[in-house]
Write a structure and sequence with these properties.
alpha/beta, 17 helices, 411 residues, nine-stranded parallel β-sheet
């Protein structure tokens, strides 16, 4: 063994490249490899000459790791494809809460440019050059799948923006002003007729758009009527959210037409609007023949017990709705009676139900409990904030039956 140890020659490792690039005070330029010199020159002149054609993949990764993150986005979008660069750009320029890659197709480049476009639109003013913005968008149009903004002081023509986004699948738009302070002006908030017209055109012409979220836009029936001109002709929208607006029964009558025989809508949210009993009747009538909608939210409206009853009566013949939210609608015993008829049907698909913040009594909870004894589809029913007695045995029984159904669904 000693003879083998004597013959052993310790291996000499090469100095790290980082030492050759300036971290060593005794750095000798003559020892720097030609490839490293080329990399330094390319990095220094990348903004003027961003071409990487003919460069091996290993050296390209080295180049992008040294590039600054404040490059012109129009050039970076075309010439930089290394995900490590875009990850570094996102982490250094965005807040941790914004770096949710799972919401952006699991790619850092998509995350960066969707946030970049959001920032550009939110800071766009009426006197800015729209043509310059559109020219910029064309450079990174392939990486925009979701168009989102939370303010729009310049009221950009959204249809012109969407025309240049061939991969657009979702729009989440809110017209308003952030951090306005003491300069509050009611006219600065909400959607205008021109905005609704542009949105309608975007929805009608888009071939890939599947989700439309327009919450908190002070949208009334007139604006909705303008928007419906595009929604009527769309065959791709499956998710529509118009919550927190000013839609009344007349608007619901318009929306109910989207639930016809040719409907592809699977999720409809109209929470926190001004929908009364008549709106419940329109929706109930539409649900009788609909077979596409699976989720419906009407929380925080004014259906009252009568409107809830008419809505639930329409669900007797429905075989598609699995999630229903009717919280905060002043529902009572008439609604519970109609609901029990729905739940008694062996073909009822309803699995998740929210009846919280209504006017249900202990007697209503007893009716639900007796109904659930013969129902195995419903696995969740929220009965909080109702008029039931404290420690009500009927509510506890409902929870036990729901737990039973949940265990059976998992088996």
């Amino acid at each position: 063994l000693s003879d083998q140890v004597k013959r052993f020659k310790p291996r000499k490792f090469k100095e790290k490249q980082e030492t050759l690039l300036g971290k060593d005070k005794e750095f000798n330029a003559a020892k720097e490899s030609l490839s490293l010199k080329c990399i330094k020159v390319i990095v220094e002149n990348f903004d003027r000459n961003p071409s990487t054609e003919g460069i091996p993949a290993k050296e390209i990764r080295e180049i992008t790791s040294r590039l600054p993150i404040d490059l012109d986005p129009k050039k970076a979008a075309v010439f930089i494809h290394d995900e490590s660069y875009w990850k570094r750009a996102c982490i250094q320029s965005l807040s941790p809460s914004a770096c949710q890659i799972i919401e952006h197709g699991l790619t850092w480049k998509q995350l960066f440019f969707e946030h970049h476009l959001q920032t550009r639109l939110e800071s766009f003013k009426e006197d800015d050059d729209i043509e310059e913005l559109l020219e910029e968008i064309e450079k990174y149009q392939d990486y925009i799948f979701c168009l989102r903004f939370r303010q729009m002081p310049g009221h950009v023509e959204v249809d012109r923006v969407c025309e240049r986004l061939p991969n657009l699948t979702k729009i989440d738009l809110q017209y308003g002003i952030n951090k306005i302070g003491m300069d509050f002006d009611r006219r600065l908030f909400g959607m205008k007729i021109s905005d609704a017209s542009c949105l309608a055109k975007s929805v009608k012409d888009s071939e890939n758009l599947t989700s439309c979220v327009l919450t908190g836009n002070l949208m009334d029936d007139d604006l909705l009527r303008m928007l419906m001109t595009g929604l009527y002709k769309s065959s791709t929208i499956t998710h529509l959210d118009v919550s927190h607006n000013k839609i009344t029964n007349h608007g619901v009558r318009l929306l109910a037409k989207l639930l016809g025989a040719r409907s592809v809508l699977t999720s409809l949210a109209m929470a926190d609007n001004q929908i009364h009993a008549e709106g419940g009747r329109y929706l109930g009538r539409a649900l009788r023949s609909n077979d596409s909608l699976s989720s419906l939210s009407l929380r925080l409206n004014r259906l009252t017990d009568e409107g809830g009853r008419m809505l639930l009566e329409g669900m007797r013949d429905n075989s598609s709705v699995t999630r229903l939210n009717l919280s905060g609608n002043s529902l009572g015993s008439e609604s519970v009676s109609a609901l029990s008829v729905v739940l008694r049907s062996p073909e009822s698909p309803l699995a998740v139900l929210d009846l919280s913040s209504n006017s249900l009594t202990s007697q209503d909870a007893s009716v639900l409990a007796s109904t659930l004894e013969r129902n195995e589809a419903l696995v969740s029913c929220d009965l909080r904030m109702n008029s039931t007695d404290e420690g009500c045995e009927e509510v506890a029984k409902v929870e036990q039956l729901l737990h039973r159904n949940e265990l059976k669904s998992r088996a």
